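Hi W.,

Here's what went into the run:
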Amino acid sequence: MKNRFILSVLVLLLAPVFFVLASPQPEATGPVKLTIAGRDGVYGNAMQYATDEYTKGHPDVTFDVLKLPYNSQYEKVVIDMKSGTGSYDLIMIDDPNAPQFQKAGWLASLDGMLKSKGETLDPDFISAAVKLGRYPYADSGTLYALPHVGNVEMFAYRTDLFDKYGLAKPATWDDVLADAQKLKQMDPNVTPVGFRGVKGNPIVSGFLPIFWAFGANVLENNKATVDSPQALAALQYFLKLKAYAPQAVDTWNSAQVRDALYGGRLAMVTEVWPSWVGDLNNPDKSQVVGKVMVTAHPRETAPSSPVIGAWLLGIPKASKNQSAAFDFLMYVTGKDMQIQLADQFGIAPSRKSAFQDPGLLKKYPWFPGQEAALENARARARTNKWPEIETTFGTYLQLALIGQMSAQDALKTANEKIQEIIQ
Amino acid sequence: MIKRRTMLKYIVKNRFYYAILFPAFAVVVFLTVYPVVQVVANSFYKYNFLSDERLFIGFKNFSSIISDDIFQTSFVNTIIFSFVGTLLEVGLGFALALLFYGKFFGRRPAMIIVIFPMMVSTMVVCSVWRTLYQFDIGLLNYLLKAAGLGPVGWLNNPHLALFSVILVDIWQWTPFAFIVLQAGLLSIQREVFEAASIDGAGYFRTVFSVTVPILWSQIVLVVLLRTIDTFRVFSKVYALTGGGPGNSTETVSFFIYREGFVYFNLGRASTASMYTLVVIALIAVVYIRQIMKEGDV
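Here's what came out:
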């Protein structure tokens, strides 16, 4: 009897505590601090600028912007998402990794937030970039992230050298090879072509526009197809092109490509991203002001296939400040901020209006081409196994590039391994 | 039975000390034993951290990893790295200890310069060496070109890249071997060397017949510590080559990192860790046996 009494008293005392803990936590009102898991370098500087500007207009919202290297950012975000601790209120996601986050249900639906605020998604966003934030990957998929950086891979060539030696803009990859041969004979001071050769993501990103233009695919109907005749033709072409690239191209990453392009040491670059070329016409940083054209990739047996590489911004489901995070997300992907970030940091916009801004068009004359490339860009395979597929493919591509495997053997082994991964 | 009862009595008698030791012991168990048990358990599962897929597959991870060509290359590279790195670090460290045993002008500043690399963060060391190794504008190739020789692909030649990474490790960790061996050398009475000299032993005879046997336990200690450390090499590979070109600088730690933190295949990463654990445990056993042998003397 006595025990029952004590138990009843305890239940009565603890019940309010239980209800408080069990009831959904209301969002914090008053000052809010948003934590953003962002990238380092120019992306980090741009995000810092955007947050500083936002705080000026919203003094009750402050930010902690984490500027992390690529691998570290991915690891930290994945571990936090999985544990559901809600350490971050906004996360930057490289688009090939988006399916992992979307499939796992780690991100809050933006459709619901738009609806609750009585808004709809602005049609000014370029649809190819928005689609990356949807799951399933379709125009009708649920929206989980918005494109903060509308990156698309492009091709660059030196107009002054092409004019000097009477060469036309390369329309096909065969033209690129022929031009590289001519440039090597005509100008010993310039390296005909450059690209990223580091294994993993860099070499795959650089190779994909060639691979796709030769009609090859990484996956078809959930089967690995990197050993197809088209893939072999693409890799054999890539190896031929290597003869006209710098000797140490196997160790070249974005910094080396960018430095060589800005320093006027390359005649063609098969892979440039908008953030690499932001200062191309800045005389303080570039020796080739007005001498480089950035354009869509050449075609081959298939049409030109620019690779989309957008950076998305999503709100983790576990974030305790979803409403404030959503407001900032709309601000940072808004037209005005997109124009400012493009102007000051060279960040690629994801809105049509930003591409058509007169000031930006003057500064970046290749913007119409970039916008067209982004509209028609092709996404990497939408699978949550992409990081593993890419690393495997990139390893064997490089083994072929450095001559440790024949093109045929490299593709055959890569195909077997990729098939194992997707099974 | 009697032994157990005596032990129990001993514990009861000293229960206060055991009680105050318990929290620290519990923390140690939680931080060391628990992760190891978890790794052992995970190694028997097909376990993906992202998808939460966790399927018991017995020894399948062990067989698939051992037959994985990248793991095989990583393992061989790790053995080469560990063997060459340790041998040269200890050899050079010993040579430096002998050199600094004598007195010469500028000995103190020279010693500071020699031990400096060990005090610098590995990432800084790698940044410096990456610049030195740069094919087009690196200092090493600049000097080679100035000497009329062709440039060398320090990090992009698959036959050379691993040794370039080993060289950085040697540069950074030879001072460690030097410091330990020099401390041992300084603890030897000078009279021992004088006696050897009176007996007619030359310099090299004294080194190999007197110094090395006396310093043997320190040499073994340094060899084992450096072997264990080099066997786990990760940061230098990560910062200098990323495992490339091809798989020429892949190491077991890098393989584990990629499986665990890029693919989040915790089952395979745990299995690869188990292989590493076995090798390091074997090295540790050798060391413990050596220490115990010294204790018996």
